[in-house]
Design a protein that fits this description.
The chain is an alpha+beta fold and 241 residues long. It has 9 helices and 9 strands. The strands form 3 sheets. Strands 4-8-6-7 form a 4-stranded antiparallel sheet. Strands 1-5-9 form a 3-stranded antiparallel sheet. The chain has a two-stranded antiparallel sheet with strand order 2-3. α1 packs antiparallel against α8. It is globular and about 50 Å long. The protein starts with 22 loop residues before the first helix and ends in a 12-residue tail after the last strand.
């Protein structure tokens, strides 16, 4: 995810006492969530599910040095995978991050490769239209034809409550003043109290990303709308994340 601007903060979210957050709690604040992908990707996602980078590498039988390069180093450009049975899939670039900047904002003795590996185990959604708008309006995305999957939060959160994790930062960006990040950046939905977490962060809703570990194979069951986003104008080739 890219295109947002955040103040520098500690990304750690402690496990908090009190009633755990429920799918209803999450959906009451974020009734829709949004996944952005390249134009034309919806057909494959509909048929095969919304897959993580790791799952795509497994399906396309990418091994050895190629797998390490894609999965544990920053991708400066999108990677197109081909397979005789599974066809073609594109893994997005990671232009909004640099390994040098990551090294300066990681906690818990994590290396950049460790953080990239954590990202590759998840699929990501913006939690609201504001985050989505920042992404679509980012300079590096204006020349891209994109698709936005508008997802029913309650349905997906009910089905995947044990695998949903929340983040208060843009975990895929180190632009401007990157937030610190570490082992506690992603917090399981059922590990925290929404009100206690909100009070810890000044009384405001700070969920920016909703993530699902190990993908969503039946994502089509929760997609309410697929929006087509045309390029706005020509700029140097950019990315989504």
């Amino acid at each position: 995810m890219v295109g947002a601007r955040f103040v520098q903060c500690n990304a750690r979210v402690p496990h908090l006492k009190g009633p755990a957050m429920t799918p209803e709690d999450l959906s009451s604040r974020h009734p829709r969530m949004y996944h952005v992908t390249l134009a034309g990707a919806w057909e494959r996602i509909r048929d095969h599910g919304l897959m993580t980078t790791d799952q795509l590498l497994d399906q396309f039988e990418v091994v050895g040095e190629d797998r390490a390069l894609i999965g544990r180093t920053r991708r400066p450009a999108a990677v197109t995978l081909h397979h005789p049975r599974h066809g073609t899939a594109v893994i997005n670039d990671q232009l909004p991050m640099t390994e040098a900047a990551l090294a300066k904002c990681l906690d818990d003795a994590l290396a950049p490769a460790d953080w990239l590996a954590r990202l590759n185990k998840r699929v990501f959604f913006w939690s609201d239209e504001n985050g989505l708008s920042r992404l679509l309006g980012a300079r590096t995305n204006r020349s891209r034809a994109l698709q936005v999957l508008v997802v029913d939060t309650l349905g997906l959160a009910t089905a995947y409550a044990d695998r949903i994790e929340l983040s208060a930062i843009n975990s895929g960006s180190t632009m401007r003043k990157p937030a610190r990040r570490g082992l506690s950046t992603f917090t399981l939905l059922r590990d925290l109290s929404y009100d206690a977490w909100s009070r810890k962060r000044g009384g405001r809703d700070k969920i920016l990303e909703i993530t699902v570990l190990d993908g969503v194979p039946d994502i089509a069951a929760f997609v309410l709308e697929v929006r087509e986003v045309a390029p706005l104008r020509m700029v140097p080739e950019g990315s989504i994340a």
